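Task: complex structure prediction.
Instruction: return structure tokens for all chains below.
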Amino acid sequence: MQLIDGKAVAAQIKSEIAAEVKGIMAGGGKRPHLVAILVGHDGGSETYVANKVKACEECGFKSTLIRYEADITEEQLLAKVDELNNDADVDGFIVQLPLPKHIDEQKVTEAIDYRKDVDGFHPVNVGRLSIGLPCFLSATPNGIMELLRRYNIDTKGKKCVVLGRSNIVGKPMASLMMQKSLPGDATVTVCHSHTQNITEECLQADIIIAALGQPHFLKAEMVKEGAVVIDVGTTRVPDATRKSGFRLCGDVDFENVAPKCSFITPVPGGVGPMTIVSLMKNTLLAGKHEIYK
Amino acid sequence: MQLIDGKAVAAQIKSEIAAEVKGIMAGGGKRPHLVAILVGHDGGSETYVANKVKACEECGFKSTLIRYEADITEEQLLAKVDELNNDADVDGFIVQLPLPKHIDEQKVTEAIDYRKDVDGFHPVNVGRLSIGLPCFLSATPNGIMELLRRYNIDTKGKKCVVLGRSNIVGKPMASLMMQKSLPGDATVTVCHSHTQNITEECLQADIIIAALGQPHFLKAEMVKEGAVVIDVGTTRVPDATRKSGFRLCGDVDFENVAPKCSFITPVPGGVGPMTIVSLMKNTLLAGKHEIYK
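Output:
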């Protein structure tokens, strides 16, 4: 069993990006600039955004954090989005989800200029990902593709089971894994809450990507010997022994599943760091105007 | 075994649309207007476009066919697309594919205003389909969904195998079948040229949607007793006994597969007529500005 060290790969990629930014600056180019909008004080969101700002520093990007209280109106938020769309100094920006209930998340997502949508959530980027055209790829699926690539994990013709059909992980993950490319060319099955015999589905899989958000859902008896297991789960589980009062819990019963795997990602330190690095890659691409002019 | 009569369902839907158009006209509304651009003289394209124009008549739509010789430049075609985008009398339009090799199909597809893209090929519509938002649904997958709906075929929790991963059938079909809706909520597997053990995959399926474009690919020994089989194939096979010199051949070995099925679509007369009807439904929606204002 080999542990997939997302933290180490992420560090490696960040240093590659930092080197490229140095080159851009040396050539008189513009420093890539990511703006993050954070509304309210959700604990998870606070952590994610702080990590994104930190990653920007490591990559040599300029970053700006814009904070709003939870009572900001949809109109005010949309006005800010419009302003950032038209600000030539801003290469890419994200609005951290979830948003307070009185704000329509989809409306905000679609208001972002797709050429600055480094989260890859805008329909144009979702559609281009599906078709196989250059775009800002959804961060988590792209991070997983990068792990498969860097660990030389064979996907061609392999059976891949994706657990979960969310718009930000399950569906784009399935699209990328079935794409005519490497990694890709896998036979992909998407399982979800209505799937019958989910154990049998998983037992057939060479690669399982678990993105249900259900702690320890994937048990050892659901995994065949030699499978590759990618754990996208990051549920916060109360833990009185931690200073924070919680620990992150994956969708995989790691302790019992790991011994059966050829490769497995831990939680934390697997997919999580790669998700942020994917955002950095998109920001670099945005700064270079490589995908959209 | 029950034959799914796509021709009859299509006729029924066209009469429903015609009734709605009558109502719109009676209320002083505008007659929906579909424009089709046909480049060159490809035999299949000629037939498809002629059938679309005929369907428009049956639905009470205005239709306009614009023909160009195969030597039209990309620039000229894009200028026409731009003109149609800005013509308020045109509710929706299509550029019949394939196009001559000197014209970039993707560029033309993306040049069409997504609010008039009744084929549903523009990235905005592809992305919205994937996310599950209202959009112009890709015609063939939407026609198949309509058949499943009208024949009350249960899809929830069923195993669905999609053969083929094309952008216009396989991928959107998979998205729709896994969507949280009915029809939908199926456990979907997408198979393609690199899939190993495709027979075993198919044998597990409650529903098989064959869209490989390989005549008689799906044999009886690949289908389990009681399965639902949807045949998207329409390959032209030379046939000296026909006046046209060819016959349409599906991806399914119908004669031997049909006796094992609970439901099956024939070729011709199954999915084909539904594809055109989906285009009519999109044109009606475009005329009513129901999806995009």
